[in-house]
Write a structure and sequence with these properties.
Helix content: 10-25%
Structural class: mainly beta
Distance between the termini: 24 Å
Radius of gyration: 15 Å
Number of strands: 6
Strand content: 35-45%
Largest sheet: 4 strands, antiparallel
Shape: globular
Length: 97
Amino acid sequence: MLTWEKYDDKTKLLGYTVGRFMKADTPVPDGMDYFDIADGHVAKGYFDSYVGNEEGLMREAIEKHGEYSSAHWRFMVEIGEFEKEPGFVYYISCDKK
């Protein structure tokens, strides 16, 4: 998960979180961090192989749809799907126009 909430001005690096989606109000163990994801719209895309520009392709598809605009600065998630079929699922935050 990439998010601007953990952007570091000194290193100029985005926050990159490895974790799981959990239900609201799930207890967080000491020493671990979390992000609350607000209710909203999310675009989901599937790629059967890694091409290196998945986020850009997703943003183009969102804008092409016309009803939504990308809000990728809130969050973008990449999930490797290796149990069923090799590939990647991407989720990008969106706003309804």
